[in-house]
Write a structure and sequence with these properties.
nine-stranded antiparallel beta sheet
């Protein structure tokens, strides 16, 4: 099985649906691989952009010796308040294989408008995926207080038995269909008060995410702060 199937599926989908095109990425970030004898991991990175979207980062990652998968992050242009998208589907080998599944559509403002536009469209999807057999995620570190306080009501973060691979990939496809419907309806923010709230959240999120995200902490440990900050600047920061 192609353990990086999410990356291939989403790349094809976004190129077809929204005309996603490649965006320059520093050479030192195109492939990250540790020289550690423990085989901590490696990543192949691709960066894209599209109308209304500042960055779309798609990563194929090998974590340690037992976990391989793909991560997709989508960040809107500054004049839009489209939700920040994080999708991570990884396959964990072991006595009982399982899937690490993370889905997040994080609104940039907490108010009734964001709930109507960016929470409600995902609600039925979240209820449906929540019916799959699963268990809580552990072993990847805990996010910091700021990230915990700003989790979307529709976040999904679970381990799922790997016999449900087809179902997980189908839910991933549905998730991006919902996002694309939201994306197509998005217009630039004209309310300056709302725009200031969006800008303030972006600044606050960027201030904390590197050191509060377990993945960021791992990057700092593996490659040093300079490379980790470069990675987040190009691929993660809002």
């Amino acid at each position: 099985m192609n353990k990086y199937i999410l990356a291939d599926m989403v790349t094809e989908k976004l190129k077809r649906e929204i005309g996603m095109v490649s965006k320059p990425l520093p050479e030192e970030l195109k492939t990250l691989a540790t020289a550690s004898p423990s085989g901590r991991g490696s990543s192949e990175l691709a960066l894209y952009q599209a109308e209304k979207l500042k960055k779309i980062s798609i990563m194929k990652s090998q974590r340690r010796e037992t976990t391989a998968g793909a991560v997709v992050l989508i960040v809107a242009d500054d004049e839009y308040d489209l939700p920040f998208i994080v999708v991570d589907v990884a396959f964990v080998s072991g006595e009982k294989g399982k899937i690490f599944a993370e889905f997040e559509a994080k609104p940039l403002v907490k108010d009734e408008e964001s709930t109507r536009k960016y929470i409600e469209p995902f609600r039925k999807w979240r209820e449906a995926i929540g019916k799959l057999p699963s268990e809580p995620v552990s072993g990847f570190g805990e996010p910091g207080e700021f990230l915990k306080a700003n989790v979307s009501p529709n976040e999904y973060l679970r381990f799922i038995p790997d016999e449900y691979t087809d179902e997980v990939l189908n839910f991933a496809d549905q998730f991006f269909d919902i996002f694309l419907d939201v994306y197509r309806k998005a217009e630039p923010v004209k309310d300056m008060q709302r725009r200031r709230k969006i800008d303030a959240f972006r600044a606050e999120y960027n201030k904390y995410v590197l050191e509060e995200d377990p993945s960021g902490v791992s990057l700092i440990e593996a490659y040093g702060r300079q490379t980790a900050e470069l990675f987040y600047d190009y691929l993660v920061y809002l």
